[in-house]
């Protein structure tokens, strides 16, 4: 249950990152490659929050 709650934040974060990337590509298609790289970096940092949630679960279990 604890990790389920901790996964909500990263899920929302990834959704926002991907949505803003799509919006940016729609506005300036010539930057699609650069925006995609930045999107993957943003997803990686956001998913780090999920790993912290897993670690916290095992520490306080």
Any key phrases for this structure?
mainly alpha, about 0% strand, about 60 residues, single chain, 3 helices
Question: Please, could you describe this protein's structure?
Answer:
This protein is mainly α and 61 residues long. The protein has a single domain (1-60), classed as Up-down Bundle (F1FO ATP Synthase), CATH 1.20.20. Helices cover 89% and strands 0% of the residues. The protein contains 3 helices and no strands. α2 (8-27) runs antiparallel to α3. The mean pLDDT is 89.
User: Helical residue percent?
Assistant: over 70%
This entry's quaternary arrangement is single chain
Annotation field: number of helices: 3
Uncertain runs: none
N to C succession of SSEs: HHH
By CATH, the architecture is named Up-down Bundle
Structural domain tally: 1
The profile of the biggest β sheet is: none
Mean pLDDT: 89
Q: Report how far apart the termini are.
A: 12 Å
Report the count of strand segments: 0
């Amino acid at each position: 249950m604890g990790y389920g709650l901790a996964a909500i934040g990263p899920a929302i974060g990834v959704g926002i990152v991907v949505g803003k990337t799509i919006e940016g590509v729609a506005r300036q298609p010539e930057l699609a490659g650069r925006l995609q790289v930045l999107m993957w970096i943003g997803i990686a940092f956001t998913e780090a929050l999920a790993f912290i949630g897993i670690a916290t679960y095992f520490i306080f279990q």
